[in-house]
Task: structure prediction
Amino acid sequence: MQTLHGHSSTVWMAAFSPEGDMLATCSDDSDVIIWQCMPGPTPEWKKACTLTGQHTRTIYAVDWCEHGLATACGDDTVRVFNKRADGDPMHVGFDLEVTIPQAHTADVNCVKWSPDGELLASCSDDGVVKLWRFKSQ
Result:
């Protein structure tokens, strides 16, 4: 068993990447932490990067697709981050690709990608589920 420390407040969700080698966690601290499994005789999870300064309130949910991840935030916004392909599998980075301000009229509580990564569903305290068509750059 391994315990991951990094957030300063309530952690709302943890989601594994499709490959299973990364884990994204989100929190009341308005950060997403990306953890990466370091191979070896005893695999160990290490903090790879922190997505900070992009969200202004609690991040309630994260979900992965093959090109990156999406976040659901208490500032009524949905954000999509692209994973950088810099050729070094030990160096992980993400760039903000899309921000959908006022995606809902209340806190966005959940996001979920379709299996093909072209639709993103978001749901909110406003009682609405929205489907967003998305094509990665």
